[in-house]
Amino acid sequence: MVNHFLKLSDIAPEEIQPILDRAIELKAGATSNALAGKSVAILFEKPSLRTKLSFWVGAEKLGGHPVHFSPEEVGLGKREPVADVAQVMSRMSDVAVIRTFAQETIEEFAANASIPVINALTDMEHPCQALADTQTITEQLGSVKGAKVAFIGDGNNVAVSLGYAVAGLGGNLTVASPDGYKLPAEDLEGANTYGAAAGGSVTQVTSPQEAVADADIVYTDVWTSMGQEAETAKRLVAFDGYQVNPALLDQAGPNVKFMHDLPAHPGEEISDGLLYDSRAVAFDQAENRLWAQAALMEKLI
Ligand code: NVA
To answer: pLDDT value at position 70?
Structure first.
């Protein structure tokens, strides 16, 4: 059976911590040749900085060979059917890293692939980000278990994957979003079920102040995700009052850390300069993409 990572819950809750532990080992200098002689096909239909760089460098660190395709080169489902692209990539490479729009596209790709397929962001999930996020929380707090994490803003792909990962590790995530932008009901329920045995939970509220009370971590992401640009004006109105700024962080626990998956839009979901606040760990998070994904690739291949 081929191991895919299309959504965070494709791995069991007890499989998360070993990936994070290995990521921390690799970051500390452990070496690996897990991908020696293997090729990693990286196909993105949306822009990327961190994801492309981290998969590319991560593949090389494990002795593998990355091959990157930009959207216009392949035309996934347009120039060539998704199933055919999956078959061709499976014949010539050893793992496929896909960033696309609909979750159904990556599911269809995986159904036709005979190599592991990794979700490098869809409209529904960003599971690799959630591994880097929980690695970062582990580094900051010692453990995700029992951590109180507040996510302020859109109940989007980043929030969904974070919910599964935090709950699966026994942490507690509270998401504060305006009406119309809350977590999908099936993921709110799904993440609570996924995290139940570990004692983790995900809660949806409306008030940012309620979410950040006593939080160890305050996290936000853009209000308008890639592909939603036509909704920007409407979203600016809907998310008024949801900005993370020093005053909101002051309402959290005294040692609170601020997280953002980047890129950020200062003046919108964060105040100017917040990435450089002494409480911010967003660039640690960015670096951890490299290590968490290297550990993930080791496991899947
Ligand atoms: N929610 C954002 C994350 C970017 C890394 C998006 O999908 O555009």
So the answer is: 87
